[in-house]
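WARN  no MSA supplied for this record, continuing single-sequence
INFO  ligand: coproporphyrinogen III
INFO  echoing inputs
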Amino acid sequence: MSDRFLRACRREPVDCTPVWFMRQAGRYLAEYQEIRAGHSILEVCKTPELAVEVTLQPIRRFDLDAAIIFADILLPLEPMGLSLEFAAGEGPVIANPIRTAGDVAALGAVRPDADLGFVLESIRQARAALAGEVPLIGFAGAPFTLASYAIEGGGSRNYIETKRLMYRDPDAWHDLMGRLSDAVADFLAAQVAAGAQAVQLFDSWVGALSPDDYAEYASPYSQRIFSALAELGVPRIHFGTGANTLLPLMAAAGCDVIGLDWRIPLDEGWAAAGRDLAVQGNLDPVALFAPEQEIERRVLDIVKRADARPGHIFNLGHGILPETPPEAVGFVADLVHRATRRTG
Ligand code: CP3
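INFO  complex generated
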């Protein structure tokens, strides 16, 4: 039984610093690869028995303080009318991306129970299987990051189509963002009702925006989601990458925990977001490829910067990469626990 993750989210004292890893279920684990050999990523997401098995795999193998439900941020785009595929080696592909105000107007609404019931069922089954051993995190993509996939049709380097719509047709942009934020707020509330004990909003690509553009085109919608969740009483984690100039604005959007990437020292990021929030992060995912001694030096530096203040959740600064040696994950989890054990 570990409640130190939820305690740290609330900035309560803990026996040692909790640790989990973004993308902790995934291709770096042979047992995940084995399941993926017989099923596509969408099949795994849509089959609760498989999604639960994959959710539990890292919990069985490592001493982690939270599980995250196996799903994907792009799943709500399908019921809105976008066709979603994961091409091998290429990442997500949307064959009918949004380009015009008409495309936005044609989008459907998301009814979480009817359209994404498989995620809710996975959450119910995962809670039962975890039997209170560690808390379960639910998640969704933030409107900006979802819009970038919906408009570009996949990953992007410069977000030209996204910003083209934003700058040339702000009405269509705001219409799209309103629809995405309604869908995400309802979906996250349904995840909490199904048993998610904390929620994380992934705004993975928000670092593409300047602070002014973030304030005008993105943050009102993330704010709408966080305020809809406020009354549910579960910790709300807000994560972006390349977003260090946005941290004060991301904090102001109404989260309880701010996620930091590795490009900023933890203490500086925490100060920028505000000491009244908890903080999650922020080891470089590629540090897991270094020799143990070097990993240790970097982990201890983060621990030192957290300075035993209540409210630090150890994590990577972004998701685990597929090539990561699994031993490094166990090494970091054990080291964080050992190095932060509070006595007396
Ligand atoms: O363990 C966990 O963290 C839960 C599962 C999870 C997945 N996707 C499963 C998945 C989570 C939290 C996500 C979130 C997600 N999905 C994000 C935000 C997090 C981040 O890293 O910034 C984003 C941007 C996506 C969109 C997405 N899904 C991409 C870009 C890809 C391809 C990436 C790649 O490395 O190929 C996916 C597919 C995907 N979703 C995989 C997994 C494990 C890999 C596909 C596979 O198993 O073959």
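The domain at 4-339 is CATH 3.20.20.210 (TIM Barrel).
INFO  checksum written, moving to next record
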